[in-house]
Design a protein that fits this description.
Radius of gyration: 15 Å
Largest sheet: none
Protein name: Tetratricopeptide (TPR) repeat protein
Shape: globular
Number of domains: 1
Helix content: over 70%
Structural class: mainly alpha
Distance between the termini: 43 Å
């Protein structure tokens, strides 16, 4: 679990979450991503999808819609009944694809 990994490294899950939220408030979503990725490392469930949802929101904020779509999808996979915001985001980002990249390459 992410909190176990973080705590074994001398970090407290709740403190990391507070720090990430402060970074987001300060307009530093890219730095918050680093914290959320650290928290998610080794946590297969992404804390029941919560970390995937937070990562999706951060990536969407910085304009990386492909990464946002991926992380929202992971959040829904882990906890579809609870991650309704992620499911809504997936619908909103449904048009995000790689067609322009693939079509341009061939």
């Amino acid at each position: 679990m992410a909190s176990d990994a973080g705590e074994s490294a001398g970090y407290n899950f709740n403190q990391l979450e507070l720090c990430a939220k402060e970074l987001i408030k300060a307009g530093r979503s890219a730095d918050a991503i680093k914290i959320y990725l650290f928290m998610a490392d080794g946590d297969q469930s992404l804390d029941a999808g919560y970390l995937g949802e937070r990562l999706g929101a951060c990536y969407e904020t910085i304009g990386d819609l492909h990464a946002a779509k991926y992380w929202y999808g992971r959040a829904v996979e882990e906890n579809p009944e609870v991650r309704l915001a992620s499911a809504s985001a997936l619908q909103r980002l449904a048009c995000v694809d790689i067609r322009d990249l693939v079509d341009a390459s061939f």
